[in-house]
Design a protein that fits this description.
Layout: E1 2-7, H1 17-26, E2 32-40, H2 44-51, E3 56-63, H3 72-82, E4 88-92, H4 95-108, E5 112-116, E6 118-121, E7 124-129, E8 134-139, E9 146-150, E10 166-168, E11 199-203, H5 214-223, E12 226-229, H6 231-235, E13 256-260, H7 266-269, E14 277-282, H8 289-292, E15 295-298, H9 301-311
Parallel strand pairs: 1-2, 1-4, 2-3, 3-10, 4-9, 5-9, 11-12, 11-13, 13-14, 14-15
Antiparallel strand pairs: 6-7, 7-8
Helix pairs in contact: 3-4, 5-9
């Protein structure tokens, strides 16, 4: 039997959908027995949600006031202690997982595998390289734990008809006191979260200004969509960097993705390649974005966007 430990991503109250997608990845391992670890100050609600996920054998609840902020430096030693006896330790390839899992791998003395997009065999995986331009098959040593992040955009979430047992655990891992949370700054919005939204409207540098980027927000509100942006738009100060989509931002897989004024640089395309339908609006008919778009409209976005927003009522 292959023992798999998944690290739950949550906000202290709600289980992030990335965890259900990690479960789908783990089921590709032959003979997998899947446990989910929930580390929080108060883990009951999140643990209960994790216990409902199909294919989960057990949920391990680790409650500690130090876990309230979800700092990687605090969580990693506890996860490394929990990992004793497990063959695999997986986390999502989200901002949370990218911060956390390399620390876990370092503490366990193994190399991390990043962005698993498919399980070929119990120690053989596929992952993207060169900004998604190529896919490589990697084989992990069979005599040591496999620590990896899962490219959640490559997986559908598992079902939630299970009732796995929830067990509590006390982890004496020497939680460090050299790292503390000072402040969290994030934009407040009623729009869907970028990484989990079914629809996303994203804008590029062609918007020209922070004021013009309001067109993106207006269309997103009409569609009930999340909002994204290219690195160029973020660097230009149009929006905050937590909206960046692409190789150095968030990798997403919405059902519908609007690329407004986005040229289609490979660094951006790698973040949206798993989207269901891509709609591109750009005045340059030679823009690379049209090579990956399912629907393309050539024209001036400042003429098209107001008409589209008005047509949506």
């Amino acid at each position: 039997m292959a023992k798999v430990l998944l690290i739950a991503e949550h906000d202290g109250e709600t289980l992030n959908p990335s965890t259900a997608k990690c479960v789908s990845c783990a089921t590709g391992i032959d003979g997998a027995s899947i446990d989910i670890a929930v580390l929080a100050e108060s883990a009951s609600d999140v643990a209960a949600a994790a216990a409902k996920l199909d294919s989960v054998s057990r949920v391990i609840s680790v409650e500690d006031p130090a876990n309230a902020s979800g700092l990687a430096a605090v969580l990693a030693p506890q996860i490394a202690a929990l990992a004793d006896g497990y063959d695999y330790v997986f986390g999502p390839s989200t901002t949370f997982g990218r911060d956390l899992m390399p620390r876990v791998a370092g503490l366990l003395g193994v190399n991390q595998i990043s962005d698993i997009m498919s399980v070929e065999a119990n120690h053989t995986f596929k992952r993207p390289i060169y900004a998604g331009n190529a896919v490589v098959t990697v084989e992990a040593p069979a005599d040591q734990p496999v620590v990896a992040t899962v490219r959640v955009a490559s997986y559908q979430a598992t079902g939630s008809g299970n009732s796995a047992p929830v067990e509590t655990a006390d982890v004496n891992a020497g939680i460090p006191d050299h790292t503390r949370l000072v402040e969290v700054r994030s934009g407040q919005s009623d729009r869907p979260d970028l990484q989990t939204a079914a629809r996303v409207v994203a804008g590029g540098r062609a918007l020209g200004s922070e004021e013009s980027f309001e067109l993106i927000f207006q269309l997103a509100d009409k569609l009930g969509a999340g909002v994204g942006a290219t690195r160029a738009a973020v660097d230009a100060g149009y929006v905050a960097n937590d909206l960046q989509v692409g190789q150095t931002g968030k990798i997403i897989a919405p059902e519908l993705y609007f690329a407004i004024g986005i040229s289609g640089a490979i660094q951006h395309v790698t973040g949206i390649k798993d989207a269901g339908t891509i709609v591109a609006i750009n005045k340059d008919e030679e823009a690379p974005i049209f090579e990956v778009a399912d629907i393309g409209l050539v024209g001036d976005l400042f003429n098209i966007m107001p008409e589209l927003i008005e047509a949506l009522g």
